[in-house]
Every structure is written in C-alpha cells, then in structure tokens.
Amino acid sequence: MYKFAHITDCHLGSWRNHKLRELNIQAFEKAIDACISEKVDFILITGDFFDVNVPQLAPVKRAVDVLKKALDAGILVYMIYGSHDFNIANISMIDILHSASLFIKPTQFVHNNGRINLKFFVDPKTGAKITGISGRVMGLDKEIYELLDRNELETEKGFKIFLMHTGIKEFMPLNMNVPDSIPFSELPKGFGYYGGGHIHKKIERKLSPFSIVIYPGPIFGSTFQDLEETANGEKRGFYIVKFNDKLVSYEFIELPTVEIISKELSVTNLTSSQIDDKLKQLVNQLDVKNKIVLLKLKGKVNAKIGTINFSRRNSEFINNGAIASFINSTSLSRIESKSITTSGSDIANIEKLVLVDKLKDFNSTRKVKKSICDRFDNSFLGKAGEIKAISLLTTLKLGRLENETNLNYDDRILAEAKTVIFS
After folding, report:
1. Residue 72 and residue 56: Cα distance in Å, rounded?
2. What are phi and psi of 233, to 5 degrees?
3. Which structural domain range is residue 302 located in?
4. Which of 232, 254, 276 is the last residue of a domain?
5. Is residue 342 part of a domain?
6. Residue 245 belongs to a domain
C-alpha cells in the first residue's frame, strides 16, 4: 500500500495584507508537515504555486525551505505550472525552483505527426506513472488537449495519475463561470487518479470504483471570494490518496482557518452619510478580535461611491483587533449611472472579459500603410490581442521586489512590457 498527497493553488505571496499573506504561507507549511507526519510517498502540486510569476523573495525563501524539508524527509514533489506561474515572455520563479531540483515537472511531451505525445514519469518508490499538462494564461493549454494522442496514454499499464490545471466542463458547479474549461472527452481514459487545479472549490467525481477526479481547492485562498466561500462553509485543505495497483481510498485533510465574519448589506437608495452610518454601526456592534471581516455592499445608491470613506471603517475594524477587513463595493452603482453589463466569477475573469469586449470595437487607423495596419491587426487584434492584453496587464500588476529601487522597478516593468508587446 502506498499513499500520496495532492495539494493545489497555494498562491504563495498573495495578499497585500501581511497577516493574510502569513496565514497563506503557514497553510502550506502545515500541509507539508502533515504530509511528513503521514509519511506519504510523494506529493502532487497542480499549479498556481505562487500568486504571480515573479513574486517577492520572502515567500520564495519560505517556499524553498518547505520544499527542501519534504525532500529531506525522502518525499519527492511533482508539480505542474498554473496560469499564475506561467510567463509568456520570460522565465518565472517556478522555473528557477525547478532548475534547482526542488520538484519534478512530469509534463514532458513531443510533437509527432501533428499530434502531441505525453511522457510518463515513473515514481521510483511506488512505480506510479505520472504525467500531465501545465496551465497557461488565456487557456493556451487547450491546444495541447485538443492535439493530445490519448491512445498511447490509455494503453499504458499500471497505476496512472494525470495532472491538470484546468476545469472540466461536466464537473463544474452550476454557479461557476470557467470559460477555459475543457470537456472530459479530451482527457485520456483509464487513469486511476485525475488531479486538478485552478478551480477554487473542492470537487470529487467518482468515475468508477478505481478511478476518480479530484480538485482539492486552494489551501487558504487568494481572493475576497475565496474568503467569502470559506466563511460560508467551503473547506480548505488537501487530499491524501492510498493506492496499490489500483485506487484504494482518498481522504480530505482539512487545514484549520481563522474565523471569518461575512455580511452582505443592502444599501439601495442610501446616501454617502447613511452608508457610512451603517458601517459605523457594525464597527461598534461586531466582535472582530482575531477574525477576518468581509462586508459586501449591494444596490443602487444616491451617492458618488468614491466619496464613501471605506478605508476609515476598515482601519477601525483593524484597531478593534481584526486580522484584516475588506469592504467590497464592486456591486454598488449610482442610480443615475449606466450599469456595467460585464460580469465574471472573479476580478481576473472580469478584467479578461472587459479587455476582450473592448478589443472587438477597436480598429487600427488607416492613415498609415496597409502593410503596417495588417501587421498591427495580426499582432494586436483577435485572439493574439487578447493574449497580449492579458499578459501586459499581468506584467503591469507585478509588485516591486525586495530591495528594488523605484528606478530599477520601472526599468524592469518597462522591459517586460516591451517583451510582451513585441514578442
């Protein structure tokens, strides 16, 4: 009997709030400690290990220390890249960790007569055969699934594990909008374990007595929505799976989280001062010590939203002992303002949808040579334009590295932006 752990979507380095960033890293440390205590034979990580492809060095050092701790305990780590780890233009931090042999990337493939052949990595201790496809931004990994030679994978004998960082359309919750998901038919059949990442919910789908699809969900979470769902009962943790020549059992290992207060407030027709009074009332009523506070405001209001002093009320929650406080006003609109029709499951998805929508209406000027216009259209419109726009936005959101001067930061971002634009 053997066993492995499946961890995903760590998003290390996420959160500007240092206390939340620390809780996120601690969740990963606790997960690895539990793996060592349980004496698992190996660990699978299915993408989005870091929150950005070039993170600050402090969480990188902590991640290296934890990965090395697992390796020192004789536990190999197999990791595929996620969309947050992927960098279309440059080397990402995850590449550096891989070069340092801190984990094994079982995603090797070769092109063969227009098809893609994935290679298995055989775990030396258990004989498990592991392969998979890393995630990429804008669903660039979908082409690999479409061209995948599944026959060769399906005829391989032994206990097989397939790793992926994408959603499966048939298994997604009805309330989730995951546009880059793939149909289950594009996955090879006959694997004992399909380990998924990218989907921030815990999902189990039994295919047969000896085959299962599992998405563990994030170990802590990296967005307001993640924390909101945790407050509403979504469990956070990872899986431990037992097998021999077949799947034997699987168990979700819940990681403890801090208490989260989540409230939704209707403020329709209220003025700025009335909304502020309502928030002040909550500051005085709620016991927030050592808790995370999430407040979501909804409705059409008689106020300029920018005039409401949310930061003051957040500060008061912090002064009352809250670990962190968020007042989400994205669902607010002014009564006389035009409503925004674009919607999505999270900020990144909304950004993508807005960019795609704007690109549809964009036309290059015809006051220059047609050859130049055609070259511009081929590079910046349509699917190519979507990819460049999302990549450029991701680059422009990169934070400053530790000990990096403003000048060096500006130069680095400008250089990376130019690489994205002219690649």
Report:
1. 25
2. 110, -5
3. 262-334
4. 254
5. no
6. yes
Reading the chain (423 residues) residue by residue, the pLDDT tens digits are: 999 999 999 999 999 899 999 999 999 999 999 999 999 999 999 999 999 988 999 999 999 999 999 999 999 999 999 988 887 667 889 999 999 999 999 999 998 888 999 999 999 999 999 999 998 876 677 888 989 999 999 999 999 999 999 999 999 887 777 778 899 999 999 999 999 999 999 999 999 999 999 999 999 999 999 999 999 999 999 999 999 999 999 999 999 999 999 999 999 999 999 999 999 999 999 999 999 999 999 999 988 888 888 999 999 999 999 999 999 998 898 886 455 555 555 666 777 777 776 666 565 555 556 666 666 667 777 777 777 788 788 778 777 776 667 777 777 787 777 777 776
In terms of pTM, does the model score above 0.85? no
Domain count, the chain: 3
Are 235 and 98 in the same domain?
Answer: yes
Residue 340 forms part of a structural domain: no
- Closest by alpha carbon to 225, among 326, 152, 119? 326
Catalytic option among 84, 165, 198, 200? 84
84 belongs to the catalytic site: yes
Residues 373 and 244 grouped into a single domain? no
Residue of 263, 224, 212, 301 whose CA lies nearest to 6: 212
Q: What share of the chain is helix, strand, coil (3-state, %, to 5)?
A: 35, 25, 40
